[in-house]
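Sequence in, structure out. First:
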Amino acid sequence: MPDVEFVNLFAVAAIALGAPLLLALLPAVRIPAVVLEIVAGIVVGPSVLGWVDPDLPVQIVALLGLAFLLFLAGLEIDVHRLHGRTLRVALLGYSATIGLGVLAGLGFGAAGWVTSPLLVAVTLSATSLGLVVPILKDAGQAGGALGQAVIAACSVADFAAVVLLSVLFSSAGASGGARAVLVVMFVVLVAVTGLVVSVVGRSRRLGSALTRLQDSTAEIRVRAAVVLLIAFCALAEAFGLESILGAFLAGAVVGLLDRDSSSHPRFRAKLEAIGYGFLIPVFFVASGLRLDLPALLADPAALARVPLFLAALLVVRGVPALLYRKAFGARRTAAAALLQATSLPFVVTATQIGVTTGLLTQVTAAALICAGLLSVLLFPAGALGLLRKT
């Protein structure tokens, strides 16, 4: 057996188990488990106590967790709801987001904090769809007009942010124009693959076999989804793109093919069990392990970036919600603004790519992640309070 130690991975898995369990035992503490996972990773990691290191096993599982996180984000997107005025408003809102993000990036660049204002714009432009949808459901708004508008805006933001990050800031080294062509070719190939899978899946003989094996130890639909995920990640890397684009599109394709889930109602629950049950929490804890907190705390000027990044996130993603004011009123529009400004997973992903490509320093990346943590702590609670009052 290879000389690999699993002590650090055990510690990370134990944190992933303990974080939601602790929150369940303390119902008065209303924070998402992901926040506690990252904070725990910071505390036990090299930045504070130094008990756990992000060694090779942790890094490998964390990489799979990132892929599964983007896969499940793509799975959340319902393309059949993205049409008409809802889609137009979402696209207009994201255009405003990018414009505001570039202005914010230029301001931070003038202060000497970043070297790529566009990377800051893209980093601030996404919304955590997986965190927003449960809040809307909790408030009874997910199926209403406001909920659908926010979900559409988040879906467009997530998809566009992943594409822009892959096109403009891939660590592969190709020029932006060449990467744009590669993205188009890759998306076409993904669409063709999805079409082929859809046609093959209509075979009665194959369909009967899938139904027979889907709830057996074969778990054939889950295995097929994992194969598609890994294949698209590998294909994206072969095209010189970020693997996150392949993971995201794999989820979107699976979601599109899984429109009629009457014959396999537990399929998505099984995928979420793999992701949220093991892989994704490891990614968030590992993100905390890698956070350079001492450098952020050592310099008051660096620490001051956190509230400014948080304010920028609220402006960049929240101001476009004013497009809803006429239809939903001031209070519900403010709630939508807070929800759209809730972002953490993509911030973590984008900052890691920024550090890898040399466009972000460790200190700036840590400040952005801390701002994302605060957005998840503060914004959903404020939005839920406004929606409940409504």
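Second:
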Amino acid sequence: MEQKSMTALISAFSRAYHSVQNTDKIFDDYLAKDILTENEYEQISSNMSKGINFFNPLFDGTQKEALHWIVDNQLSPTPLGRSAFTEKALENAVRGGAKQYVIFAAGYDTFAYRQPDWASTIQIFELDHPTTASDKQKRIQSILSEKPANLHYVSVDFTESNWESNLISCLEFDQSQISFCSLLGINYYLSKRTFAETLNTISCIVPKGSVIIFDYPDEDSYTTKAGERTKKQVALAGGANEKMLASYSYLDLKNLLADSKFLVYEHLTPNEITEQFFKKYNKLNPEHPITAFDNVNYCLAVKN
């Protein structure tokens, strides 16, 4: 994608809004608000609240309430849930010996800039398209005086078959060290073939015990069986020129991973995600409950 990714900006907005609006947080991305300009934040807020009839034709309330409803129901469940799942799993992996964190299509991810103490022992690699990467770096420079010493930017285009050569040529990347690879929000936009090739490539450059974590759309995602929110999301992404392509049954996915020597270690369906990551928040915020997104599952697999 040549232009700034609109879906990446909206994902950052949803994390920012949740962090600013709530005292009890599912996931606290306290830097997300600073990454967006005041104008972008206001503009996305305004555009979203004006779209309430699309998201919820029966809604009755103010524009401010409409925005809150849209963020909690449509925009933030997946970015919040998958970030909480990933960073908790990353901490476990680091305690278990992982030395490298590779963030695929990093977008406006802020982990490297709010890294907790336990992350100081790892090398972090942000992989992204040059356009998105340089836009993100400009934004970060306006809020932080210096780049964390253990962070490395790697410019890649995942549609090119040799993207891994840029990562391998990064001096700090060590193919013999256990890596934790996150591919959040990517699967929707890759064909099954490209995803299979990506898994295979990752498997070739990381050792046994390395982890891959991602969210993915289930096999009903683009059918009439899809949940209402999913149908809206597919329409939105298409409107932003970021068409959603593939979907998977659990068996599809398990086989695809096995072909690249990965074994499913943890797999969460929407109900399990809500139970694990949103239950406490919902108890404290009964008037604004958040449930995991329809048709979106999370998967953590380990190279065997």
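Remark: Residues 6-75 form one domain.
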